[in-house]
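User: Teach me something about this protein's shape.
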Amino acid sequence: MTLFPYIFALLLILSISVFLVWMKQSGHTNMKVPPGSCGWPVVGESFRYVSLGTQHFISEKRKKYSTDVFKTSIFGQKMAVFCGAQGNKFVFTKLITSWWPVTVKKILFSPEFSHTPLDETSAAMHRFVHEILKPEALKNYVPVMDAMAREHVESDWDGNEVVKVHPLSKKYTFELAYRLFVKEIDVEQVTRIFKHFALVTSGMFSVPINLPGTAYSRGVKGGKLIREELVKIIKKWRQEMMEKNETSPSYTDSLSRMLLVTDENGKFMSEKEMSNYIIALLIGSYESTSTAVSFVLKYLAELPHIYDEVYKELMEIAKSKREGELLTWEDIQKMRYSWNVVCESLRLMPPVQGGFREVVSDVSFSGFTIPKGYKASWTAYTTHKDPEYFPDPEKFDPSRYEGNGPAIYTYVPFGGGARMCCGKEYARLEVLVFIYNIVTRFRLEIINPQDKIVFHSFPIPMEGLPLRIIRHNI
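Assistant: First, the predicted structure itself:
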């Protein structure tokens, strides 16, 4: 008796089972899902996304499929990419929850926390960050920022004819964040952790293949080493607080204030949990801000008429200060034109190019249905350079932010909705303080206008953005 009928029946059952699973995972084939391609199995279009960068990848897909929404698969997930002001509004306001790529979670969080539901993580992170980014704390950070900016200029800018702005701005913003949020001043330790951070940021939005030598693997290793260093620091400061019986530290003592944060049950966070949030906080307060600083200085060097207006405004503040007197919160509020210049730089070159969410129930947009479980992505470029929202979009024009400014959901360098970047005000202070310390001391000249910009996790000038600096004779 031949076994062929039985083998055939078994193969048929297996084929039908695989087909049904594929039907379920593909998001219900009777739905009109957005047009697009999911690329190769498992890796999807991750390689193309990483190689092209967010802006060029999305531009290519919009031309091919739809200017409103298209589907793709990156980071091992099926994803709907929303475009334009209506797309931004939809992602920021509808039934969509937080989501991070697995690469981000595995790199930033220790293994026992990387599987915690993201809503729980986000809620805990909000409690943690709120304590150190509340208005009272931010006001007290301004003099510290100014003092550190002065030290940075004296050590790394003074005496040079040419400086590479991007690596210097990264060094400054990292050291400042470390001073404010970790408060250790051990130079060797800061240098060691800074090197690990380069591995972390390069791996966060890489292809999720954890093999030796890959960006993802290096990122996981870097994150682990940083957390180990942070746990040692946290244990040390917790012990000192207990010995001093300190219950009300100053606003500039951020780490001590973080040590007092409790969960909804009144329980203090463990050292490991705190290390997860501090590494995320350091990433958010250093990489994106250093990129913002770099490109503001680039535009000021390229556009002398813009520089002159910024210089005029900032020198009025400088002349009102006594010798050695540090900047205050009130001084920052006077930097209105300078902030408009920063805003225009953020429009043209947003450090954070977009973000991700997760669809929690079937939703409809622009005639298409996005199934529950799909990931959702928004991007700044689809509105920031759209002439409908910003006439002559390639022109650098700070006046766009006068009066009521851009229409809602068109200008999104900090995201939008309930999950807008909670570090927006911190970034504003840090960038303006740094720009103040550079512009009031130096005139800037661009050396290579063709310095190529590559797009990875953040836009990066390939040559480090070298500028010629000329000290003012005041």
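Now, about its shape. Residues 18-23 have pLDDT under 50 and may be disordered. The chain has 17 helices and twelve strands. If you'd like, I can walk through any region in more detail.
User: That's plenty for now, thanks!
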